[in-house]
Design a protein that fits this description.
Layout (H helix, E strand, L loop, with lengths): L2 H7 L4 H12 L7 H12 L4 H11 L3 H10 L19 H5 L3 H4 L3
């Protein structure tokens, strides 16, 4: 694990306290992975690779499983998101009304 995350996790930062409390509340159980990942994303806005490693170590879950869960569920973000999110409808009604042209460079 990165020494930066280890040092950061032991400080008095409120975000880390919240995450560690969630981990302890669930008894450091691997079953708490999704709940803890949600707490991490709530605290930091996204799931940083070093923090994923910290969570895996704390719960006794292999890094492959932590990453697999983080990438499987669409609610988890691995990169910081922009200030605004644009979603273009791709349904039939939108397609018929040329919604695809909004996303293209034409």
């Amino acid at each position: 694990m990165s020494t930066a995350v280890t040092a950061e996790a032991t400080t008095d930062d409120k975000k880390w306290k919240m995450i560690d409390a969630r981990i302890r509340r669930r008894g450091n159980s691997p079953d708490a992975l999704i709940e803890v990942l949600h707490a991490v994303q709530e605290a930091f806005g996204y799931l940083e690779p070093d923090v994923l490693e910290y969570v895996g170590d704390a719960l006794g879950v292999p890094p492959s499983r932590v990453y697999g869960v983080a990438t499987f569920y669409s609610l988890f973000m691995l990169k910081p998101q922009g200030e605004h999110t644009v979603i273009v409808c791709t349904g039939t009604a939108c397609y018929i009304n040329h919604a695809a042209a909004i996303g293209s460079n034409s």
